[in-house]
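Changelog entry

Holo records now carry the ligand SMILES as an explicit input line rather than a separate metadata file. Below, a converted record for oxaloacetate ion, shown in the new format.
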Amino acid sequence: MAVAELTAPTCAKQGLGSSQLSYLSARTSSFRRLSFRPPRRTHSSRISCSVNQTAQAPVAVETEVPKSNKPECFGVFCLTYDLKAEEETKSWKKLINVAVSGAAGMISNHLLFKLASGQVFGHDQPIALKLLGSERSFQALEGVAMELEDSLFPLLREVQIGIDPYEVFQDVEWALLIGAKPRGPGMERAGLLDINGQIFAEQGKALNAVASRNVKVIVVGNPCNTNALICLKNAPDIPAKNFHGLTRLDENRAKCQLALKAGVFYDKVSNMTIWGNHSTTQVPDFLNARINGLPVKEVITDHKWLEEEFTEKVQKRGGVLIKKWGRSSAASTAVSIADAIKSLVTPTPEGDWFSSGVYTDGNPYGIAEGIVFSMPCRSKGDGDYELVKDVIFDDYLLKRLTKTEAELLAERRCVAHLIGGGVAYCDLPEDTMLPGEM
Ligand SMILES: NC(=O)C1=CN([C@@H]2O[C@H](COP(=O)(O)OP(=O)(O)OC[C@H]3O[C@@H](n4cnc5c(N)ncnc54)[C@H](OP(=O)(O)O)[C@@H]3O)[C@@H](O)[C@H]2O)C=CC1
Ligand SMILES: O=C([O-])CC(=O)C(=O)O
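Structure line, unchanged by the conversion:
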């Protein structure tokens, strides 16, 4: 692959030359015009001449992937400001570093703008986005970064793009792992588990090596429970509790269907647990869920509908949507990632809970240990969570839990080679499917 030969000087972390100053003043005056209070530079301000912004147009470039794997700060985000000098930033919290993989993909295209706007981590939380892509997606990643620049988000203080997880994950406090290969026609699920498993093993190792010791990791790329398991097993220095497989979209889908049936607005549905795998064996728990504070089964008396139609609708919602849209849920997945983060950084309302795929060791429900299984969680808003104890089970629920548990145990056997478990042996149940498959 041809790589751009760069003629422009590299000037990251240097004093500014006159041509660089004019570049800077052009950028700051455009901030001013757009009513962003112009930031004052400190003496140590840097302007990193990102290779992609300042080089003369190179000849015959195919893809401008940087020579080194070091992530590049992007465009306007290469400027560093003295936040303390700005009145409106006085109440801002300390900057957080958030990594997003698959950053040029569809889900990220919705999510990144939510993160940058402040609607996820809060309107007083400045954020640095570290975007992980690949050689394949590097130009698209630049496009994403350009759109982030043009959005003039006050809270977005840095954007870096890169293709090496060991560089991109440096010091990150959150890692949103979205990038994964979609299952193609004729591909065995075991094949998907292996290909994506390699990605998540590598990313787990990278997080273990360079991320914040208390990084919170949300795995979205499918099959997300087992990918989260692979990731955490490859990151032994990070608490296993910090890894999540995203099942919040399933929770939201379940709430919507219950609200629709009961004829209430969906904010009246609470205590919604998705148990198990983000797959068609998942169990949307109508036994413990509530509508207007009452048990669902008291409000919706058609129990056959709950056991059959409702359950299947939630399990297969992703597939129905793919048939309509021609692609999998992206916007609603991004919303659910935002919800999952908000549930960890804000205290859970009294009496309520949320679902997340988390590590089962020490769980109070008797679910097999050593897998990532969606369960009901509560948080004090400190990024951590505890499992909810006061849930009830009946025969129907227990039978379903056993099935989704068996599927996750089979997935674990299938990736044994990636989690230090010896030789892999794949005996996945035949009806094992992602929600998006039908
Ligand atoms: N848990 C959940 O609730 C949901 C999970 N998902 C899952 O999220 C993931 C991402 O979805 P979405 O953003 O829509 O997908 P896209 O296809 O739009 O983007 C996925 C990204 O994955 C990266 N990728 C990593 N490895 C490969 C590979 N071997 N082949 C192809 N692409 C690869 C690509 O980025 P790059 O080239 O930069 O690596 C690509 O941009 C999928 O696994 C999907 O199944 C989707 C909906 C719901
Ligand atoms: O199967 C997919 O890729 C889509 C998916 O997870 C969902 O819609 O829940």
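Spot-checked after migration. The first helix runs from residue 18 to 33. The first strand starts at residue 72 and ends at 73.
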